[in-house]
Design goal:
145 residues; 5-stranded antiparallel sheet; 12 strands; globular; binds dTDP-4-keto-6-deoxyglucose
């Protein structure tokens, strides 16, 4: 499957009340440069988002607060990765379908992305995604050079 689960480098203070800090550096800890960051917040438990793949975009997904399940689908298999610890990160390669399920109210999803936002590099139709997986050089939207 074209994803990795990583443990972010972290510094947990000996004094538990001071909590912890975790981090990753682009192109050192992550296999891509970071051009964009975004967060998804104030989502109610039980809600689903996503339902798309990217043709170019690499992403690191983090859940700094709460619990979110990420379903990753390569067109043949579907696997679920639970993000419920701030130090646990999910690197999604381009070309995988993702769905996100909120397990807990107000869980926060933070994402570092390799690309600027470009609606044209999303595949939002599952049948088009399956076609794309069969012929990754082909453009399901007719928009890639
Ligand atoms: C992804 C998952 C994990 C922007 O204008 N700029 C942005 O950088 C982003 C990410 C989104 N948008 C707009 C596009 C839509 O009008 O924000 C709206 C909501 O985006 P979307 O429905 O794609 O949100 P999700 O939660 O389904 O998916 C998002 C990311 O779009 C996607 O890249 O992998 O989070």
């Amino acid at each position: 499957m074209e994803y990795q689960v990583i443990t972010m480098k972290n510094r947990i203070d000996a004094d538990e009340s001071l909590g912890g800090l975790c981090f990753a550096e682009a192109e050192r800890d992550l296999p891509f440069p970071i051009r964009r960051v975004y967060c998804i917040f104030k989502v109610q438990a039980g809600m689903h988002r996503g339902y798309h793949a990217h043709t170019r975009n690499w992403q690191l997904l983090l859940c700094p607060y709460g619990s979110i399940d990420i379903i990753v689908d390569d067109g043949k298999r579907r696997e679920t990765v639970r993000l419920d610890d701030p130090t646990r990160g999910l690197i999604l390669h381009p070309g995988v379908w993702r769905e996100m399920i909120w397990n807990q109210d107000d869980s926060v999803l933070c994402v570092a992305a390799s690309e600027y936002y470009d609606a044209n590099e999303y595949i939002r139709d599952y049948d088009a995604f399956l076609q794309y997986r069969k012929a990754p050089g082909a453009d399901p939207e007719g928009k890639r050079s």
